[in-house]
Amino acid sequence: MFLEIKDIHKSFGENENRVEVLKGIDINVNQGEFVVMLGPSGSGKSTLLNIIGGIEESDEGSISIEGNSMNMMNEKRLSLYRRNHLGYIFQQYNLIPNLTVRENIEVGAYLSKHPLEIDPLIENLGLKEHQDKLPNQLSGGQQQRTSIGRAIIKNPDILLCDEPTGALDYATSKDILKLIEMVNQKYGNTVIMVTHNAAIQYMADKIIQLRDGKIRSIKQNPMKVRAEELEW
Amino acid sequence: MKNPLHKRYIRELKDDLGKYLVIFILLVVSIGFVSGFEVADGSLIKAYHASFEKYNVEDGNFTTERTITASQKTILEKNGIQIFNLNNYENAFTNGTTIRIFAQRDEVDRVCLMKGEMPQGTGTIAIDRMYADNNGLSIGDTLEDADGNVYTISGLVALSDYSALFQDNAELMFDAVKFGVGIVSEEQFQSYDANALRKTYAWKYDDASIAGSDKEEDVSKDLQSALREVISIEEFIPRYQNQAITFTGDDMGGDGAMMVVFLDIVIVIVAFVFAITTRDTIQKEANVIGTLRASGFTVNELVRHYMVMPILVTLLSALIGNILGYTWLKDVCAAMYYGSYSLPTYETVWNADAFIKTTLVPCLIMTFVTWVVLWRSLSLSPLKFLRNDLSRKKHHHAFPLSHRFPIFTKFRLRINFQNIPNYIILLIGIMFGNLMLMFGLALPDILQSYQTNIEKNLLANYQTVLSIPSEAMDENHRFQSMMQFMKFSKAVETTNESAEKFSAYTLHTIGSDACKSDEVMIYGVMDDSKYVRLPVNGIYISSLYADKYDTKKGDTITLVDEENDKNYDLTIDGILPYEGSISVFMPMQQLNEMFDLSEDFFAGYFSDTEITDIDQAYIGSVIDLDSLTKVSRQLTVSMGSMMYLVDGFCVGLFVVLMYLLSKIIIEKNAQSISMTKILGYNNKEIGRLYIRSMTFAVIVCIALSLPICSIVLVRVYRIMLKQMMTGWIMFSIHPKIYVEMAVLGFMSYVVVSILEMKKIRHIPMDRTLKNVE
Fold first, then answer.
1. CATH code for the domain in which residue A150 is found
2. In this predicted model, what pLDDT tens digit does every residue of B578-635 receive, in sequence order?
3. How large is the average pLDDT for residues B299-316?
4. Which residues of B sit within 8 Å Cβ distance of A?
5. Rounded mean pLDDT of A19-48?
6. Which domain holds residue A98?
7. Is A106 a domain residue?
8. pLDDT score of B172
9. How many CB atoms within 10 Å of residue B61?
């Protein structure tokens, strides 16, 4: 198994303010799989994504990628783990405001020993004519494309997407989903996407429903729909 | 209902304690020191001025060849003056110093007893407090003079006519290390050899309004002429020309003004630091501000809100600084004055001017600067805040950088572009700090090289300047005067084999408000002189003269004969390497002809060894290494410890500024730093991005500041020294000073960068995640 998540527990707060956000999560993900995690606000899906990303620590349980357990990793090794295996896409893009589009993507490229070629990628992302602009000169969709470019240029094993279309309009959202779909298919990266948007589940290989910190269901989706055909 | 936003102040203080604390410390130290200085300065100046009346300070003094008789005194006093006896002895002591000893004075120039008691009977002496400090003497210690008299120190005193211990009024600087004044009992005074008595008399005008008035100069000139008709005067010094009395007052006034300028610069720098940090806070709180503005809060309310903390910190710093100034630092600053001047005791005086300069003015400067910056930042539309778009321009365009540059280079350059306003403040701060630091580091070095150069270029080990009796120069009785001069010439013959005659004449440079008039010694040297070698016959100036007046070969200088009211235009044929005094050299014959002196006239001897076979009565002064290096010695004593304070303050200023500005840069980029961590960058790499950009900026700021400071300091030094004192000390900055400055600046930055690296390490990754929520 490429990614094994076993019995993950996570709480926030102390004593009477303690809230258990994840209550024993078990998930297995195959390499190249497109996974969508759905659930209402507070279901724990973003927390789970952050634990997979090594940004937050779980209280209990283990995560291993290609057999290497994350539990044993110190800060330095976690950095290396993120560097070598992960790409991150956020709802709010989180681009570095004083770097241009191209430079933001190069920040990702620097981290990889074998990054993708930047010029064709910028072209594929539709950013060629914007590559020397600063993030504040771009639309939301263009900023998210840049953020995707930054995440995938290092050709990561896993692409973690936290509500990547949450701040975008319908048409731009579809563009972004098409792009992620293209990345998944072209480069073979495993994609784990957290979303509120139930329609997105239809483009996934695996659909995980969370509620109150527990897995409500895990379904394989044999009838994948292309992003272009999604409607909501 | 109270504005609920007020509740944020305490929280903001807690959140940003580091920033407020370092600014607070910087302001307290600056304000406290300036306040202490102003209070000490004001109180001491007041005590100094009050001492004129309290101790009945003379209106002038003169020294005669012979003791004046009672009948002469009566005649002289008909010129509207009262004459008082100030006779004294100058005794050499076995500790290598000289003390001018007076009998107790009860009428004029009375004595302030600082500690202990006045001398009683023989074998006791009260000495000047500062001379005692400089020579490690205290009450109960003993001193022995060259004649074997042993004295026990009974008390420490300040003589009201010697607040600056000038041994000779013509000197460039006093020397409180090797020269002091003292008081002995009448009994002790009468026991000295009467032949060595210096016949000095003080006078007071019958009309008390003359002293200090515009007519004082004219009155004193008339008085001098009237006295000369009755008695033979060796020296005539009206009070306004007496450096031992006036130097202290002149110097103290100038110091106070300099300190206030220093404080104002610090306040402006801090105000801009506040402005930048507040603007940064506004950027961080853009959404909140947008919401508040959209809800009905006015721009004025928000400006007032964000102005509170900077003004509160300044006000609190001013209050605490003033409390420290009036208590502890006042004494520290007064001690600096007491280290330079022999002042009487003082009482602390409330100084309204100091309060305005150290409290009101800083608060006003802070209010103005922060108000301008805040008004500019907050007057954008609420929508712009809500959209987090605080630029006045429609869109910032990226400065084009080659795609070929490595990403780290581009990243660092972008950080630097982003922080140009911060770096400008840093540059101004570093420049200001470096200017003071350069002075602090260079001064001891300058004094040292002054001493070394004088030693190296000494004309002769000894220059014995003869005191020619006035009868020998009396043009109205030429025959008698010739006879007198022949008698004098015979009396001043020496058997010292190294002695070589020189003639001399004293002229003055033309003074102005911008430059005090200098006394210029014109030397006439023998054709085959072994001491002063003129390359070819002509007029040469000392290198010190050339440096002070920026005079070159071929220039014409104008010198004034004040006594005969005549000007001399001299064309310069060359420059001699001599830093001992502002002098002119020419062949002896030329000098004697120029000043209408007899062909065989001479005024003294150059010699390798001290001339001991001439009657002391005929010796005006002896110029040796010791006397030429008085300036550097005294300045080292009085300013040495202050320079360490200056150096320390500058390093403190560097650390504070670098800390605040790098803190702003790190905080401004916290989101990006957090994101780079998520992407997988390690702390070392992030440090390479952010700390190295700042390192580059700091190096550029330090490198830029060094030549600028050097140019500014040399100019300021030249202007100020010309205004402040006669004579000159060449100012050059040794290359090692630049190295020291660069090292101190950079070391300060290393300390700061270690702290900032720690801060980078502690920026959590969830900062990015919080942004998402």
1. 3.40.50.300
2. 988 899 999 999 999 998 888 888 889 999 999 988 887 788 788 888 888 877 877 7
3. 91
4. 389, 391, 395-398, 400-401, 403, 407-408, 410-411, 414-415, 417-418, 671-672, 675-682, 765-766, 768-769, 771-772
5. 93
6. 33-58+74-229
7. yes
8. 66
9. 24
